[in-house]
Amino acid sequence: MPELTDLSYVRALCEKYDFALSKGFGQNFIVNPGLPPKIVDASGVDKRYGVLEIGPGIGVLTRELAKRAAKVVSIEVDERLPPLLAETMAGVDNFKLVLQDVLKVDLKALIAQEFPGMPVAVCANLPYYITSPIVMKLLGDRLPIESLTVMVQKEAADRLAAAPGTRASSAISCAVSYYATSKMMFTAAPGSFYPAPKVTSAVVRMEIRPTPAVQVEDEEGYFALVRAAFGQRRKTAANAIASGLGMPKDAVTAAIEAAGFDARIRPEALTLEDFAKIQNALAR
Ligand code: SAM
């Protein structure tokens, strides 16, 4: 089997199956041979692990995962890819393809069925156009997984890895931090992919916490508050929460002050505990 990172092989494979890479599906395949081992190293998986991959493409990362994990299940939305994967994954017997949109898959059921009794990790070079919905689903569904190691746009990686209460934080930083600890692992230049994207990419590893970082009674209300606070960049948290949740500005300002903060505080200055205090004050 030729190297799947060999650009002339990739081109010939695509031509053989009359396959044109789809921008719409965020298809930028890895062609830097150093990257798949580096991503799998970052994921920490070994022969004990079941790995869930999202978007195998032609299987570059998939093959490395299959070499090093007990079993790999890859979810792919593009119905044109199975014949290419049949060729590139030939002879790899610990790999299974699920041809579906990851956002529509019952992941809990899939994991229970495919990885009974195994520690499970997610490892993927994600389609960049739906990074946030995928990460939110993987975290919010409370799946029995140990970690997520994902390649995303560098900018998105910065948000996934940012600690709440720091300048780079956003609603997704808060959500990640609620469910997991996260770490920026390394970056990859555009030339590592075919076709080369316009932006730098980066790998972030998120390790799922045994229990969320803060205890809140109404989780849905908590995340609605966090999303509202970050909903309008450059507004104070009070203004953004008032307009996002449709509440009177005075009441929100009073709650923020009752929680012990300046009424003009910005959302990026608030930690997960701070948001919990504001939620409690709003509920009173
Ligand atoms: N893993 C391959 C690699 O690293 O070379 C391909 C990564 S490419 C950035 C993203 C992959 O995700 C593509 O194969 C694309 O078709 C697939 N994809 C896009 N949207 C998807 C969705 N909603 N569900 C599952 N896979 C999806």
UniProtKB/TrEMBL annotation:
The keyword S-adenosyl-L-methionine applies. Specifically dimethylates two adjacent adenosines (A1518 and A1519) in the loop of a conserved hairpin near the 3'-end of 16S rRNA in the 30S particle. May play a critical role in biogenesis of 30S subunits. CDD domains: AdoMet_MTases (cd02440). Residues 35-210 form the Ribosomal RNA adenine methylase transferase N-terminal domain. This is Ribosomal RNA small subunit methyltransferase A. Keywords: Cytoplasm, Methyltransferase, RNA-binding, rRNA processing, S-adenosyl-L-methionine, Transferase. It comes from Faecalibacterium prausnitzii. Its EC number is 2.1.1.182. Its main location: cytoplasm. It catalyses: adenosine(1518)/adenosine(1519) in 16S rRNA + 4 S-adenosyl-L-methionine = N(6)-dimethyladenosine(1518)/N(6)-dimethyladenosine(1519) in 16S rRNA + 4 S-adenosyl-L-homocysteine + 4 H(+). One of its GO terms (cellular component) is cytosol. S-adenosyl-L-methionine binds at N28, I30, G55, E76, D101, N125. It is found in: Cytoplasm. The keyword Transport does not apply. It is an enzyme of class 2 (transferase).
